[in-house]
Backbone:
């Protein structure tokens, strides 16, 4: 079972990561940027960015971009690890368009990748990839597109952005820091039954009703402003257990998914981007938890069906399958990667080619 609670894993791994970071960092004083030997990167001004790039070689091998004079897209730039690998492999050929909705990721990656001429970085939601590419006169993606869905390590371990129950901060959790909906709005304004829905469906929280009730009761007297206040409410609402998973994990995951519309966006972009791939173009996707993977698996399966018409159609009008799966089962990180970066054990990669 791939039930993953990233918050929990991250909080456990956090201290180890800090130690590793210090060991690996090399400095380049000229541009004030630090670059690590492997996966963890950060710079040394007031803004620091930490990330792991998961299944880097597997993902980039899958889109076959070596020396290709084609268009590639990274829908989730983050700390730029996958984009950087694509650019290395392109070796000056083709063009890469990389998107992220989080300005921290954009600022960090712009600096990391500033030497590459065949790169365009765009600060927008990946659901707008096609509209953005069309502005550059691009009518199809002939190379490939990758997505590494979910939150970045940087976001989840940020002390100020409200993703983590480990730090006391405002309830925020927005990837896009300009958007209106925050975790605060949801916790303090959503109806009780809406909270139950979110906690059950996006967090698989068995005590959804109790927690939603406790939130509704608490906010009658005072607003729930911070991560620690929310933890307190959750703790009081549920029986204490010896579980290795922190009691707030599922609620935090659920709120993050709702704030960022994550599952709906994944579904939307998969069905939108596949027809925009040229025949032979490849789509390769990393998902971090079972909810994401289920959407990817279903979308790939539906788009690879011999006939995609509704059962009411008397004759087939759909034109046949859009995709051919490269492997039926998802690819997983190898033991070596899991040993270095334990949270990666929950990642699944699915790849398909446009036909
Ligand atoms: C797991 S990280 C990607 C890490 C990246 N592959 C790397 O190598 O560093 C996911 C990134 O996707 C971004 N993201 C999430 N939803 C998005 C959306 N709808 N549109 C654009 N970017 C999004 C997040 O802001 C985050 O930076």
Residues:
């Amino acid at each position: 079972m791939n039930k993953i609670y990233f918050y929990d894993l991250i909080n456990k791994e956090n201290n180890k990561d800090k130690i590793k970071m210090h060991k690996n960092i090399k400095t380049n004083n000229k541009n004030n940027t630090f670059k690590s030997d492997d996966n963890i990167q950060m710079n040394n001004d007031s803004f620091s960015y930490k990330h792991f790039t998961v299944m880097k070689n597997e993902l980039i091998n899958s889109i076959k971009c070596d020396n290709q004079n084609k268009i590639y897209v990274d829908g989730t730039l983050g700390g730029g690890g996958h984009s950087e690998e694509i650019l290395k492999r392109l070796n000056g050929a083709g063009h890469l368009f990389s998107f992220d909705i989080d300005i921290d990721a954009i600022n960090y990656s712009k600096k990391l990748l500033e030497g590459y001429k065949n790169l365009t970085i765009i600060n927008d939601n990946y659901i707008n990839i096609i509209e953005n590419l069309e502005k550059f006169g691009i009518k199809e993606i002939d190379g490939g597109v990758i997505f590494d869905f979910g939150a970045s390590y940087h976001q989840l371990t940020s002390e100020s952005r409200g993703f983590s129950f480990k730090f006391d901060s405002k309830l925020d959790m927005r990837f896009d820091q300009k958007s209106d909906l925050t975790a605060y709005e949801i916790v303090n304004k959503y109806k009780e039954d809406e909270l139950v829905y979110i906690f059950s469906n996006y967090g698989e929280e068995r005590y959804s009703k109790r927690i939603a009730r406790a939130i509704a009761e608490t906010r009658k007297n005072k607003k729930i402003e911070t991560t620690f206040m929310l933890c307190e409410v959750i703790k009081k609402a549920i029986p204490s257990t010896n579980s290795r998973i922190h009691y707030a994990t599922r609620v935090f995951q659920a709120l993050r998914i709702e704030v960022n519309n994550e599952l709906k966006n994944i579904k939307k972009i998969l069905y939108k981007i596949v027809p925009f791939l040229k025949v032979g173009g490849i789509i390769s996707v990393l998902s971090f938890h079972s909810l994401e993977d289920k959407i990817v698996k279903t979308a790939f399966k539906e788009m690879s069906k011999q006939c995609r018409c509704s059962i009411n159609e008397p004759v087939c009008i759909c034109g046949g399958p859009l995709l051919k799966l490269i492997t039926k089962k998802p690819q997983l990180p190898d033991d070596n990667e899991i040993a270095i970066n334990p949270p990666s054990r929950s990642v699944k990669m699915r790849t398909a080619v446009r036909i």
Residues 51, 53, 76, 78-82, 99-102, 105, 125-126, 148, 150, 152, 175, 260, 265 surround S-adenosylmethionine (CB under 6 Å).
